[in-house]
Amino acid sequence: MISTPLLQALHRRLIRLSGFGDVRPEDLTPLPTTGLAHDHVRVAGHGVLLRVPRQSQLGLSAASNLTYQAACFERAGPGGHVPGLHAVMLPEATVPMGALVVDEIVGRPPVLPADLPAIVRALASIHGLPVPPPAARRPLRDQVDPVGATLREVTAQARHLDAAGLHPEARAAVEEELAWAGTFARRSGRPPVTLISFDAHPGNFLIAGSGTAVLVDLEKARYGAAGFDLAHATLYTSTTWDVSCHAVLGTADIAAAYGLWLDQVEATLAESCRPWLLPLRRVMWLWSVTWCAKWRVESRAAAKDAKDRAESAEDWSADLSDAALVDHVAGRVADYLDPVTIAAVRSEWLTANPLTDLLPLPG
User: b/e for 242-271, b at 16 or more Cβ within 10 A?
Assistant: First the structure.
C-alpha cells in the first residue's frame, strides 16, 4: 500500500497542475495493489487515477521510466483502447518515481474466453496504427529484429535458471526450447514491425460497459512483432496470472482468437504475420518462464538503495510488495516452472491441433 507521506506529496504535486487545483487531500484514495510495478490512486470527482511506479520493468532510471511510460500511452492512444494521458509528474525527492495522471476506466475484469474477442480487437487497434519512421520512434524500444532482440532478453533472463532450482525435467524442457529458439533465430526473414504492448496478459485489461476492452497497463510498449501480444494474451502463463480473470483456454479458443486477429487487421499485415505467429508464441513463452526464474532469484534480494535505483529502477525485491501479492506471484511462478505445466503448454506447438492447423510455420 502506498505510504501516507507519498500520498501527501502526490497531492501537493497534483494541485499545481491545471484543472486539479480544487482537489482535497481526502479526494485521493489508494486502490488495492494488484501488481508488482505500480500503485494507483483514485482522484475523486475528476475521473482520473495517479499511476505511481514502484520500479522500472525495463531497467530504466526513474525519470526515463516515467518518460517512457508517458510515450506508451501517447503512442497507443489513437487506437481508442487505452486510457488517456492527462499529465506527467516528473520524479523529485518527495515523489522519487514520479507519477502519471491517466483516465480512470470504469469496468470489470475480463471473463475468459467470452471477452477474448474484445481483447483481440483492442490489440488489433494498436497493431494497426501507423508506424513512424525510425527517427521518430524514440523513446520506445525499436526492434528492427523483434526475434533476435527478444531472444537476447530471454538469454539474459535464462542466466537465472541454475539459481532458480528447476526440477530436472523442467530444466531439460526449457533447454530444448532455448535450443529450438537459437536455431529459429538463424532463419532468414523477419516479421513486420508494429506498435505492440508487450504486456498484454488479460489482467491488464478492463471491460467497459459497452463491452470494449481497454488496456490499462502500458509501460513496456515497443515497436516489435504483433505475435508477442497475441501470445501474451492467450498463453497459460498469462491467462492464469491474475486471480480476477483466471482461466485455462482450450486450443480451439486460442485458434479462434488468432483467427479473429487475422480478420481484424489489414490483409497484408495479416498475411505477412501469419507464418510467424506460432513461433513467436514459443518465444513469448520462453520469455515468460525465464522471467519466472529471474523473479524467483531476484525477489530474494533486499530492495535497492537510492544510489542503485538512480541508475536502474528495476527491482523485484519482495520487500517492495505486499506479502499476499508476493505469495500469489510465487505460487504462479511455481506452477509455470512445474514440469507438468511446461509439458502441457509445449503440447500446443508440438502436437497437431486447431492452432497448428491455422498457423503454418515460415518457409
Answer: beebebebebebbbbbbebbbebbeeebbe
Task: Name the pairing type of β-strands 99-103 and 85-89.
Answer: antiparallel
| Non-local CB neighbours of 212 within 8 Å, separated by 6+ positions | 81, 118, 122
DSSP per-residue codes, 300-343 = TSPPP-HHHHHH------GGGS-HHHHHHHHHHHHHHTSHHHHH
Distance between CA atoms of residues 161 and 141, nearest Å: 26
Percent of the chain with pLDDT over 70: 95
98: left (phi over 0), alpha (psi -120 to 50) or beta: left
Instruction: State how far the Cα of 289 lies from the Cα of 237, in Å rounded to an integer.
Output: 8
Cis omega (within 30 of 0) for bond into 146? no
Distance CA 308, CA 301 (A): 13
Domains of the chain, start order: 4-105 (3.30.200.20), 108-358 (3.90.1200.10)
Beta-carbon contacts of residue 190 (< 8 Å; ≥ 6 apart):
144, 145, 146, 147
Amino acid identity of residue 109, one-letter, is: P
Over the stretch 265-286, which tens digit does the pLDDT of each residue have?
999 999 999 999 999 999 999 9
- Using CA atoms, how far residue 219 sits from 98, 117, 126, in Å, is 14, 23, 14
d(CA 161, CA 179): 15
Contacts of 186 (CB under 8 A, 6+ apart): none
Question: Model-level pTM?
Answer: 0.93
User: Residue 198: what are its φ and ψ, rounded to 5°?
Assistant: 60, 20
Q: Buried b / exposed e across 188-206, counting CB within 10 Å, b at 16+?
A: eebbebbbbbbbbbbbbbb
Q: Residue 335: is it exposed, middle or buried by C-beta count within 10 angstroms (0-12/13-18/19+)?
A: middle
- Whose cell is 523513446? That residue is 139
